[in-house]
Specification:
With about 230 residues, this protein is an alpha+beta fold. It has one domain. It has a 4-stranded antiparallel sheet, with helices on one face. Helix 3 runs antiparallel to helix 7 and helix 8 crosses helix 9. The protein is globular, with a radius of gyration of 18 Å. The two termini are about 25 Å apart.
């Protein structure tokens, strides 16, 4: 960004800082707050891009304040368990930020597809091809309607739903990883493990066992998401 370039952020917006970006902020009202989270493991640049959260600014809905407060409490414990839980919260915030934000008014096709995915994503047999058949539309038609309304491919939205639940189960249960994979809609544990590693940079067992060693680093020069809220 140029030296004199500014971007106005409203409540519900998210801003992505990339390495090397300047971080100057100026309040335009008396009451203005924001939350940020930093992702600085070696694969962060790649998987943020693959989750399609690479716009500098995008609508992200209400700021997940409770997740940020919970992350602060987890890190204040100064324990490996606290760091692990904070890491999972950070990844969950990123997945929430990657969730499609409505742009054009949804059509009947996109609206039914979204509801169908949210109701059935835990079924490993459920996929986009089968959904298109049930909606009686061609896969390309489904893709066009869904991306126009939500700015994401339906396959990515389905994957994010499954990953979100998988991270929740890894954080809050001791269910064996193979059972977690099936419970959140993955066809097998290997595919689940590859997806988790691609999204977070860690294996499912690594998330449970170690958390992250870098959770308390300063955000300067890192990948960071900023959520302003009123």
């Amino acid at each position: 960004m140029g030296e004199d370039t500014y971007t106005r952020l409203e409540a519900g917006d998210m801003f992505l800082y990339r390495p090397g970006d300047t971080h100057h902020m100026r309040a335009l009202s008396e009451r203005w707050r924001y939350c940020w989270v930093t992702f600085d493991h070696p694969g962060a640049e790649r998987w943020i891009g693959e989750l399609e959260v690479d716009d500098l600014k995008r609508g992200a809905g209400p700021c997940p304040e409770e997740e940020f407060r919970g992350m602060l409490e987890d890190l204040s414990a100064f324990s490996p368990e606290g760091e692990r839980r904070a890491a999972v919260r950070a990844y969950r915030i990123l997945l929430d930020a990657a969730t499609p934000v409505r742009s054009e008014a949804p059509t009947e096709v996109s609206d039914r597809a979204k509801r169908m995915m949210e109701e059935e994503f835990m079924d490993p047999a459920f996929d986009v091809n089968g959904m298109a058949e049930r909606l009686n539309v061609h896969r390309s038609t489904l893709f066009r309607h869904f991306t126009a309304a939500y700015h994401h491919k339906p396959s990515l939205y389905l994957l994010n739903l499954r990953l979100h639940r998988g991270l929740h189960l890894l954080q809050n249960t001791e269910i064996p990883i193979q059972e977690v994979a099936l419970a959140c809609g993955f066809s097998d544990a290997s595919y689940f493990a590859r997806s988790v590693r691609k999204a977070t940079g860690k294996s499912p067992s690594g998330l449970r066992r170690h958390g992250t060693k870098n959770a308390r680093r300063d955000p300067a020069g890192r990948n960071a998401l900023c959520f302003p809220f009123p």
